[in-house]
Amino acid sequence: MSSKDRYLKVVELARRRGFFWPSYEIYGGVAGFYDMGPLGTALKRKLESFWREWFVRRHQDMVVEIETPIIGPARVYEASGHVESFTDPIVQCTRCGRLFRADHLVEEALGIKAEGMDPRELNTLIKEHNIRCPVCGGKLGDVRLFNLLFKTTIGPYTSNTGYLRPEAAQGMFLAFKRVHGVMRNKMPLGIAQVGRVARNEISPRQLLLRVREFTIMEMEFFFDPDEDYSSIVEPIASEKIRIRTGEDKRRGLEKPGEYSVGEAVQEKIIMHPWLAYWMYEASRFLEKLGVPLHKQFFDEKLPEERAHYASQTFDQVVWTERWGWVEVSGHAYRGSYDLSRHMKYSGQDLTVFKPYTTPLKRRRLRIRVNKASIGAEFREKTPKILAELASMQPEEAEAALKEKGYIEVAGVRLTDKHVSIVEEEVVETGKRYIPHVVEPSFGAERLLYILLEYAYSEKDGRTVLKIPAFLAPIQVVILPLVSNHEGIVRKALEIKEMLSNMGFTLYYDDSGSIGARYARADEIGVPYAVTIDHRSLEDNTVTIRYRDTWMQERVPVDMLPSRLRSLLAGKEHLS
RNA sequence: GCGGCCGUCGUCUAGCCUGGACUAGGACGCCGGCCUUCCAAGCCGGCGAUCCCGGGUUCAAAUCCCGGCGGCCGCACCA
């Protein structure tokens, strides 16, 4: 099967059977938007549920999920750095049409710092110095700003700018203080969210892989940067993980190296144990979706490739037949960047208090102030004197008093009549710190495509979509062996009713030959077919047929639901 | 955004170069019926495309020209 065929077959199948298709079709379509059809929606829901199971429920002692709005006030995205970092001045060559960063061109041509200049300044410089297209020498057009944030207005006043979120992360940072409180100050703390985000991509491409609106599955994991977390990777220390380090990348290496998780942490290939831990979880998550470990690795981003908030980033990439290695998740060490910025912009204290196991006792010097004598003597100067005293180091004051017999504050001299230096014991019960954050972030639509590509297979010229049973959008199909036998049909309908009432996702199919119906079900990845035949009428048994092997087993009808449940959960296989 | 290639029933496509006999053909699928004791069997009937959108040339446009939208690939961009 050629690579082109496989991709085209997946797309064709997706449209024909209703997984997904381009949005706004009847108006000619708009690039970068996709509709999810009935099967695509069901599959995506299951994928999201599985992500929750894997990253949230399995870690429920430290990870919780929230939901926050997709529209945010400008202030939030100014604080997060998105408004600044994603507004690039661009300029286009009028001859060859190439786009350039205007500030970069000016810097190169004139050897001056141009970053942060506004478009007008850049325009003037380009015109004055006759800077031309570095590729073809053509004349450059006007400098304009391009930002990947979708902009809107909140309410009727146009001055109240809002942005559609380009990531869910800010919702978690903004809610951190409250969630931390609600979770009774638990640390470390993961806050997860699954939701829509929008990025105004310049050129959406590659089907579902680069779209303008998509579902992100993201977790911000907060922890104390001073704590030694090396023990958290101990249980997985010998597990293997594939990484192409930044260093390897610079040397032009295409292939990743294989490391044990323990080794990657020890040798600082991954800068923090928590980052390593979630990367390991991500690799196994992908494996469960059907992507074997040798078809995925973590690709370290070089400093110049990283987002503005990250000090280390790995892209988790998966092999696709059409596009080669494709990014499905990002794993960033965001440090305290986001919380610090929101503290600065909002004026709120977003630090966490951490009690010491045993309170720390310390002796320290303090300036004791005799306010009565200062007030009596210096009158209206008193507030100023007191303010300056407050910011003075006790050690400094003590030295001055000893040497000179006075300290000079706000133009007056204070002696031991006004101040004295005392040594006192203080008890520190804990410390305050700004948590650091590691962030695993997944694109749901990309995973959906990957899932389909890896599930796609052909057998005897038929399509079989081997979606893992626990993710299959439809779990069971109910088939009467023949449709012109009243007894068989009646029994089949009864069984359909029974299974439907018990909560199975299913459909009933009596059209055409039994082979055609198996084929239809295989194509959309229904893992199990229940067939009712003549023998069913005699001994109340039916057959279960497995999609991947076409093998069958016969079970009594009473046993059918429990048998299906355990098969769907992947706990047992068809014998 | 630029360049190359491309856009016809649900899907895959024939026709386009060389304008008219196209009421746009086929295959698969879909719907109804018959038949059928386990892997897309067969038969009968049916539904389904103003040929991506808009404009132009022409007596006449799926076909030629222009613009737009969309797709793939390359370049650029990319949280």
Can you give me a brief rundown of this structure?
Helix content is 34%, strand content 29%.
Features of the shown structure:
single chain, 575 residues, alpha+beta, BirA Bifunctional Protein, domain 2, Herpes Virus-1, Signal recognition particle alu RNA binding heterodimer, srp9/1, 4 domains, nine-stranded mixed sheet, five-stranded mixed sheet, 19 helices, 34% helix, globular, RNA-binding
Q: What would you say this structure looks like, in words?
A:
The chain is α+β, with helices and mostly antiparallel strands. The protein has 19 helices and 28 strands. Helix 2 (38-56) packs across helix 15. The model has no long low-confidence stretch (mean pLDDT 88). Strand 15 (312-320) and strand 16 form a beta hairpin. It has four domains: 3-86 and 148-337 and 439-444, BirA Bifunctional Protein, domain 2 (2-Layer Sandwich); 87-147, 2-Layer Sandwich (Herpes Virus-1); 357-431, Signal recognition particle alu RNA binding heterodimer, srp9/1; 474-568, 3-Layer(aba) Sandwich (Rossmann fold), CATH 3.40.50. 35% of the residues are buried. The chain has a nine-stranded mixed beta sheet, sandwiched between helices. The chain has a five-stranded mixed beta sheet with strand order 25-24-26-27-28, sandwiched between helices. It binds one RNA strand of 79 nucleotides through helix 1, strand 5, strand 6 and helix 17.
